[in-house]
């Protein structure tokens, strides 16, 4: 009996195909080929195409949640770690995010996933909340502040994805420094 195929190998294939082709044009045959398995294995593991994509999306949200920094006590270093983790996730997944926003509402297995990225966002907002409670950071409600910090990263990455050839960079150190202006307690 062959060894079980690691789920990460399958989910990596799902994400690669999704990034390249989008949800609608992705085929289970291509995902199976890239994962080095039969299509039947995909369906046994995930039920259907939406189940595969949902599992991949949950894994990506979990990786962002898991990359939340260990609090150092240095508000600038902690916020830079948050921005870096988020920027890396957005850089890897901008095409998927655009596609997800476009197709998720109409695909039953994906529509249910809309709240899953919030788990990761909540973890990142806790960094801001920690520094607010410690008196190192002022400002508004932690999620609002997180949106202020991460919004430019999100917008630049999605614009660059939607407009090939447009070079938008994220200088994360400058972004954090600007964010902290007037917010340090």
Summarize it.
Helices cover 72% and strands 0% of the residues. By secondary structure, it is mainly α. It is elongated and about 55 Å long.
N-to-C series of helices and strands: HHHHHHHHH
CATH superfamily: Tetracycline Repressor, domain 2
Number of structural units classed as domains? 1
In the CATH classification, which architecture applies?
Orthogonal Bundle
What does this entry look like structurally?
This protein is mainly α. It has a single domain, classed as Tetracycline Repressor, domain 2. It has helices at residues 7-25, 28-35, 39-46, 49-66, 75-103, 108-111, 116-133, 142-162, 172-180. The radius of gyration is 19 Å and the shape is elongated. The termini are far apart. The mean pLDDT is 88.
Key terms for this structure?
single chain; mainly alpha; 185 residues; 72% helix; 9 helices; elongated; Tetracycline Repressor, domain 2
